Backbone:
């Protein structure tokens, strides 16, 4: 039997991690431990459409920043706006998207 991996953020604005539990019992135990420590589980319930909506909003906010008088955007402004509009889980998706696609390598 294949056990679904757990994708999670250890804390708000932390890097995304993935664990591959061996058994379903391990998976349940790990999810509880992550949540007890304040982590956020990324479940398969977050559909591709929802992620696409978040990413589109990231691009809208980045464009607004570029058109402003400072002619730029800050990741913290984009992530904070998404958190206010959509919630902390969505803001973590935005954070990870920006790091993955616009972070310094």
Residues:
């Amino acid at each position: 039997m294949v056990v679904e991996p757990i994708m999670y953020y250890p804390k708000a604005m932390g890097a995304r991690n993935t664990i591959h539990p061996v058994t379903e019992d391990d998976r349940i135990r790990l999810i509880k431990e992550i949540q007890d420590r304040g982590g956020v589980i990324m479940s398969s319930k977050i559909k591709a459409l929802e992620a696409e909506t978040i990413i589109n909003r990231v691009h809208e906010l980045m464009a607004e920043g570029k058109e402003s008088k400072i002619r730029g955007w800050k990741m913290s402004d984009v992530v904070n706006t998404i958190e206010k509009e959509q919630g902390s889980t969505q803001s973590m998706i935005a954070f990870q998207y920006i790091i993955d696609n616009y972070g310094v390598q």
User: Anything to note?
Assistant: The two ends are 37 Å apart (CA to CA). Strands lie at 6-9, 17-19, 40-42. Residues 6-42 form one domain.
